[in-house]
Amino acid sequence: MRSEDLFLVLDKEVIFDFKANPFWWPEFSTFWVVIGAVLTQNTKWENVEKSFVNLKNAGVQSLKDVANLSEPSLANLIKPSGFYNTKAKRLSMLCKNILDKFGSFEEFMKNVSRKWLISQKGLGFESVDSILCYACSRDIMVVDKYTLRIFEFLDFTFESYDEARQWLEDIDRNAVYKVVGSLSDNELFARYHGLIVEFCKAHFKAGNFDEKAKKALKNLL
Q1: Signal peptide: which range, if any (predicted)?
Q2: Considering only CA atoms, which of 116, 109, 68 is closest in space to residue 92?
């Protein structure tokens, strides 16, 4: 099995309107991606959206607005996302560090490095690559817990996060383009990650894939 084989199986199975939202992640290329990448840790995206509503109702329109909130106030606003005290502390510090280092979200988008993001407390590889892919429009694939579930089912093992990421990125673009049309690498990797998440959200329940998912994935074995 090659990466494009997995992509095309998922693309056939997943129902999602990529024409309306080609980069999948909500509010792509905005500072909300940075906030969402922190808040979505260990919780469902629906809970993050509730926190977004609270933040927007409180007048948050920029990273600076988040940085200017007291940690107790921020924690109260993001309470639906769970672990709110820890997340408030880490999110506040991240926003302040971004502004101190880059001056603005726009400069952050253009100039941030993966190394710098990984050095920030509370950001693992998945969160870092989500920010790079969806906030900064970088050509990088996100590997999340759903991706690992698929690899486990297919009996694929990798020695590291980056090895798995590189396998996914080593995709035959021409084979994909024949089915979905030409895409930039950023759009391709955003879509690929979105396909994985949407597939698993629909078919991975109570620790197992349902029969429809198993049938689709077994075509790759």
Answers
A1: none
A2: 68
Which tens digits make up the pLDDT trace of 73-126? 999 999 999 999 999 999 999 999 999 999 999 999 999 999 999 999 999 999
Q: What whole-number distance in Å separates Cα of residue 59 and Cα of residue 55?
A: 7
Q: Which DSSP string corresponds to 54-100? A: HHHHTT--SHHHHHHS-HHHHHHHTGGGSSHHHHHHHHHHHHHHHHH
Any residues with CB less than 8 A from the CB of 199 and at least 6 apart, and which? Answer: 10, 13, 14, 146, 150, 213
- Find where tokens 């980069």 sit: 23
Q: What is the pLDDT of residues 143-153, one digit of tens each?
A: 999 999 999 99
Cα 159 to Cα 74, 84, 114, 221: the distances in Å are 38, 32, 20, 20
| Eight-class DSSP state of 209 | E
Angle at 12 between CA 7 and CA 13, to 5 degrees: 100
What is the token pair recorded at 102?
A: 């880059």
Answer for the pair 118, 130: CB distance below 8 angstroms, yes or no: no
